[in-house]
Amino acid sequence: MLEAASPLKTLSAAEFAVLGLEQFAYIKAVTLPDGKNAIGVFAADGRPLAGAPDIETAQALVRQNELEPALVH
Predict the structure, then answer these.
(1) Among candidate residues 39, 42, 37, the one with its CA nearest the CA of residue 17
(2) Residue 32 CA: distances (Å) to CA of 2, 5, 17, 36, 37
(3) pLDDT of residue 4
(4) Which bin fits 31, alpha (ψ -120 to 50), beta or left (φ > 0)?
(5) Among the residues of the chain, which ranges form H helices?
(6) SS3 (DSSP) at 27
């Protein structure tokens, strides 16, 4: 019996890059050019959106923009 291909396995690289773009923002620790640490907020396609001094502020910022925060380690 042949199995149907998973929709995710048939996505092009460009389609995969925008998957979740309107639903999620990723939050991860970053080091700024001046050497200080901050929390970066990124779109699902990796585009930087904002910076925050701590995770709580970053999560609030994401939710204010009607997105769901996802932590990246």
Answers:
(1) 42
(2) 51, 42, 25, 5, 6
(3) 55
(4) beta
(5) 13-17, 55-64
(6) strand
Q: What is the pLDDT of residue 10?
A: 75
Q: Which of 47, 53, 52, 44 is nearest to 26 (CA)?
A: 44
73/58: higher pLDDT = 58
CB 52 within 8 A of CB 61: yes
With vertex at residue 48, the alpha carbon angle to CA 18 and CA 63, rounded to the nearest 5 degrees, is 80
- End-to-end CA separation in angstroms for the chain: 40
Q: Over 60: is that where the pLDDT of 1 sits?
A: no
pLDDT at 53: 96
